[in-house]
């Protein structure tokens, strides 16, 4: 979802590539879609300084409350985990779940250190895109939610709106 990763993902997009982007690189929210898609290869790209992981930490430590759907799809999988380094824990949790859901797929995890990449100016908008969609220039700097179906992104839309983001475009 994070606007800072759009150009990094664009570098990896080729013919036949399907992209799923959501808040927190949350595999739990899209595991059913992954089962249906049955990809042969998955490049899992969570990142450091993740706002969704900050939200998870604040919920676990009792500082914030979230919608029940966000709790079930995102927060619940981190209860009992080390909240000091949630970005790293998220990468481990997501990779493990991908391997459980897709035991025959080649899985590569790249924890993107956002302090080491150049990112565009932030826009306070988000885009709802289908998995096979390519990015347009005006999307760079915006947050992108991308999955096979809108239902896969319902918790993510709530997170985007809680961050004050406005819907710019929906393909659903």
UniProtKB/TrEMBL annotation:
UniProt superkingdom: Archaea
Molecular function terms from GO: carbonate dehydratase activity; zinc ion binding
Gene3D superfamilies: Carbonic anhydrase (3.40.1050.10)
Protein name: Carbonic anhydrase
């Amino acid at each position: 979802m994070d606007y800072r990763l759009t150009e990094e993902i664009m570098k990896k997009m080729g013919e036949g590539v399907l992209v799923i982007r959501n808040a927190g690189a949350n595999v739990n929210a899209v595991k059913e879609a992954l089962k249906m898609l049955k990809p042969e290869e998955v490049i899992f790209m969570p990142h450091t300084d993740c706002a969704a992981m900050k939200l998870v930490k604040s919920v676990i430590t009792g500082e914030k409350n979230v919608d029940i759907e966000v709790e079930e799809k995102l927060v619940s999988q981190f209860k009992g985990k080390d909240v000091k380094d949630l970005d790293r824990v998220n990468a481990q949790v997501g990779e493990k779940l991908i391997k459980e859901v897709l035991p025959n797929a080649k899985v590569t995890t790249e924890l993107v250190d956002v302090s080491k990449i150049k990112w565009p100016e932030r826009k306070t908008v988000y885009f709802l895109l289908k998995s096979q969609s390519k990015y347009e220039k005006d999307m760079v700097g915006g947050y992108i939610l991308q999955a096979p179906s809108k239902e896969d992104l319902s918790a993510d839309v709530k997170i985007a709106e809680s961050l004050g983001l406005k819907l710019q475009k929906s393909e659903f």
